[in-house]
Amino acid sequence: MAMQITTGTSELRDITKMERIGAHSHIRGLGLDDRLEPRENSQGLVGQAKARKAAGMILKMVQEGRIAGRAMLFAGPPSTGKTAIALAMSQSLGPDVPFTMIAASEVFSLSMSKTEALTQAFRRSIGVRIKEESEIIEGEVVEIQIDRSISGATKTGKLTIKTTDMETIYDLGTKMIEALTKEKVLAGDVIMIDKTSGKISKLGRSFARSRDYDAMGADTKFVQCPEGEIQKRKEVVHTVTLHEIDVINSRTQGFLALFAGDTGEIKPELRNQINTKVSDWREEGKAEIVPGVLFIDEVHMLDIECFSFLNRALEGDLAPLVIMASNRGMSRIRGTKFRSPHGLPMDLLDRVLIVSTKPYSDDEVQQIIGIRCQEEDVKLSPEATQVLTSMALQTTLRYALNLISCAQVLARKRKSEEVQVEDLRRGYSYFMDDKRSVQWLKEQQGNLISEEVTGGDDDVMDTDK
Ligand SMILES: Nc1ncnc2c1ncn2[C@@H]1O[C@H](COP(=O)(O)OP(=O)(O)OP(=O)(O)O)[C@@H](O)[C@H]1O
Ligand SMILES: [Mg+2]
């Protein structure tokens, strides 16, 4: 059965995310120079030079579109920047290279099988750059004439449009008149009309008309009157992911499912048809594959079935670069009784490039604290910075970073804009870090309800030490 495969439009990708200060919002990129050498403190990242350089090299290969089906693993103790570096990679990828981030535990959803969830994540990370030729009308508006019927219900009109070489008159229907009014098109504007979708875009005002009006906004753009034919063919390029194509073609409500996130399981036959279609398009030169990146955080939470699926999926033609992160040392592989490095089976480990991240030095911690203060708009006195750095070394980097905003609230309460040592001390006494919490639990023995865990120390958190 020959099926019509549609790809939607690039407008789908215009969903903007809400901006808030999150744990990683200070990260803007990998901070590498042209030779891929990491700068000490750049684009929000500090230190961790080896891992950043390795990430940069992999990124370069992805951008050149040379590697697919590779995997890398960031392994290291908690809060050593594994997630941060992966996010930095995503920011350096470029606008139409897809990047998907999942936490391994997302795979265990009730509405979908594990392998379906992983397949969707894989297909979300493969872009298809589609070239389409569309007919457009481009020219300078000479005159718009609108006739209303007596009742006012229907409108008809005429649009006179010209280039330097010719002039044509088009009849307008109600829809086009509305579109022109909405875009506030006037005589003297240079416009482009997409013939298939009827979309009108204003390119600017014609230079020839620049003297006609002297009250013009500062943002008025002047352009030359176009040359040649009014009707032209133009190539438009848009990138969609394989998953978007799957969803658009799998359901009656089409791409609305993408917004609702309610995509359900997609039939393998449909995926096969789409794969065949996409490879046809590739052969015809209509489409290009853009391999992207899939980041699986906390990868030790996957189980043995997922791992064996990954082994196989990485070998497919249409596989993205898979980046994984884990903070486990020797730990149990979920779904088995075996222990293995990072909680990953040996056959998968064999296929991945492993990059380790290391704990930070005093100086690096201080710089990270500095960056976070800037990001959160908090002023820290020099002594407070020293104290917070030593707190970070005694507790954890995350704890210290969390304390910044708490201390700011305390400082504001005593009507000071600058955070002093005393604010940090008070914050430190209000909130416990993990070590003090464990200590406290020991002291409280018997007072809290606890549950006996049987089966040994299989799944304990190991931190690579
Ligand atoms: N090199 C760095 N430069 C700047 N900020 C960093 C750096 N490394 C870590 N951070 C920041 O420190 C915090 C903890 O780092 P991150 O979440 O990346 O740790 P992780 O290695 O993923 O830890 P886990 O194993 O617990 O998931 C984050 O807010 C992160 O943005
Ligand atoms: Mg992490």
Automatic annotation (TrEMBL):
> What is an annotated GO biological process for this record, any one?
DNA repair
By its UniProt entry, which InterPro entries does this protein fall under?
A: AAA+_ATPase, P-loop_NTPase, RuvB-like, RuvB-like_C, RuvBL1/2_DNA/RNA_bd_dom, TIP49_P-loop
An annotated Gene Ontology molecular function: ATP binding
EC class of the enzyme, as a word: hydrolase
Compartments where located: Nucleus
Instruction: List the keywords (alphabetical).
Output: Activator, ATP-binding, Chromatin regulator, DNA damage, DNA repair, Helicase, Hydrolase, Nucleotide-binding, Nucleus, Transcription, Transcription regulation
UniProt domain AAA+ ATPase: residue ranges: 68-359
Q: Which domain of life is it from?
A: Eukaryota
Gene3D superfamilies listed in its UniProt record = 1.10.8.60, P-loop containing nucleotide triphosphate hydrolases, RuvB-like helicase, domain II
User: Can you state which reaction this protein catalyses?
Assistant: ATP + H2O = ADP + phosphate + H(+)
Q: Which GO terms describe its cellular component?
A: Ino80 complex; Swr1 complex
Q: What does this protein do?
A: DNA helicase participates in several chromatin remodeling complexes, including the SWR1 and the INO80 complexes.
Which protein, by its recorded name, is this? RuvB-like helicase
Which species is this record about? Answer: Coprinopsis marcescibilis (Agaric fungus)
The record lists the lineage as: Eukaryota, Fungi, Dikarya, Basidiomycota, Agaricomycotina
